[in-house]
Amino acid sequence: MGFRVAHALHSRHTHMSRSLVRSVVLLVSSSLLASGCLSSIIPDHAPATTDDKTVQLMLERRDFMGSGFVPVSPKPFASDLEPDRFVQMYVSVDAASAYRAVTPDHDGMGPEFPVGGMVVRTSSDASGTLQALTFMVKHEPGYFDEVGDFAFGVTTPDGTPVAADDGTLLWGKVADCAQCHEARASSGFLFGVAAAHR
């Protein structure tokens, strides 16, 4: 009889403890959602942004390799721009259908590339060691009309912006990037990835 009473009390105490833990977890989760802090717990679920500091942090942490982005090719492929380099393209989930509709050997575009949508290109040497990152991110209309309001950037593997020969950072309204992308106006200023590399 004493064992049954003790067991019943233990079961009731365990049930109350579990209920209390569930209540605390729900309370904390609700608070995090309400305050917008959930992205600090799950950063790769945060949407792409046009804010420079957030973009730089995302590149530094390589969040573009997380669930908020998708690789456009299954593996790196030889670069057309840089000898002895292999590149891989990642695009934010919200912009994936727009980016996948474009190929470098065909003019035309699919859905509109959304504001905040982002493309990240990794550049590695033959051994697979990451050498540089380049990106483009869509801003609000009026940011850089000549190239569809995209900002561009070139960084080291840790997300630090690279400087041009004249000392200006290759970040934002980068003239060299814009010059190439202007020719792709009919494709939403995008090059995409060739079918052979998808």
Give the helix/strand layout.
Elements lengths: L1 H34 L2 H4 L10 H10 L7 E3 L5 E2 L7 E7 L3 H5 L17 E7 L5 E9 L11 E6 L15 E2 L2 H8 L16
Antiparallel strand pairs: 1-3, 2-3, 3-4, 4-5, 5-6, 6-7
Keywords:
Chalcone isomerase; 2 domains; disordered N terminus; alpha+beta; 5 helices; 198 residues; single chain
Q: How many structural domains does the protein architecture include? A: 2
Sheet with most strands: 7 strands, antiparallel
Write down the CATH class of the largest domain: Alpha Beta
Number of helices: 5
* Regions with little confidence, pLDDT below 50 for 5+ residues: 3-47
Radius of gyration equals 23 Å
CATH hierarchy: architecture of the largest domain: 3-Layer(bba) Sandwich
Shape: globular
